[in-house]
Amino acid sequence: MADEPDNETQETPQDDAPAQAPEAEAETTAVESADAPESEQAEASEPVAEEPVAVEEPVAPAEPEVVLPPKERRRAARSKHSGETRPSRSPEERHAERVAKRRAKAISRRARRLSERAKAAERRAAAPAAEPLAPVHAPVEGTRRVRQGIVVSNKAEKTITVRIDVARRHRRYEKIVRSSSTVHAHDENNDANEGDVVRVIESRPLSRTKRWALVDVLERAK
User: Which residue from 155, 157, 146 is spatially nearest to 198, judged by alpha carbons?
Assistant: First the structure.
């Protein structure tokens, strides 16, 4: 029985220790809050307001500018005129104004033409090379007519007259029809004489009547 009071006295401090702990924590927080500056205390006490989020409004598409014809532009400019008359000008001043306007128009016209030429040159340089066109006429020379005849005159210089005899059968009556024609042929070396049998070929116009040229002499006159 004598030992019981000792046990109770020993157990009481253990029971009081946890009860005093919350009070100590409260005292420490109160001291810290007292040491903190007033601005921080005010911030801690006031609730933080959320910043408003900016909402982007949809941008309406820009309307295209209306391009008026020249007549409408002049009419709009006249409608904006205040009605005040310009001061009177002398003929020399009006002429100088006209000359200045013409000079300005000429300068703008020249610049526009130069730009158009430069653009055309760039287009030609960028364009692919054009394929060569097919020749309209055949590159080879056409067949020229060759005739055989008898020289009837060689009096002209470098020119002979050749009689070409033609004998053909008539289509309907089957009769041999003989005809002849004379042509003037070019003889460069005066080689043919009267009575020679020669061969001539068609050529370009060499004079007013010469359209043939001598090829060779087939048979000499006896």
Answer: 146
Q: How far is CA 113 from the centre of its chain?
A: 16
Q: Report yes or no: 198 and 160 within 8 Å, Cβ to Cβ.
A: yes
> Is the pTM here over 0.85, yes or no?
no
Reported as a single tens digit per residue, the pLDDT across 72-92 is 998 988 888 777 777 888 999
Q: How many CB atoms are closer than 10 A to CB 149?
A: 24
**CA–CA–CA angle 13, 16, 20 (5° rounding):** 130
**Residues 153, 194 contacting (CB under 8 angstroms):** yes
Which structural domain range is residue 160 located in? 146-219
* 157 lies in some domain: yes
Give a yes or no: residue 182 inside a domain.
yes
Does residue 200 sit within a domain? yes
Give the tokens for residue 58. 């949809």
Is the model more confident about 124 or about 5?
Answer: 124
- Under the phi-then-psi rule, with left for phi > 0, alpha for psi from -120 to 50, and beta for the rest, what region is 83? left
CATH of the domain at 173: 2.40.50.140
Let me know if residue 164 belongs to a domain.
yes
Taken in order 169, 175, 176, 177, the sign of the CA dihedral is: negative
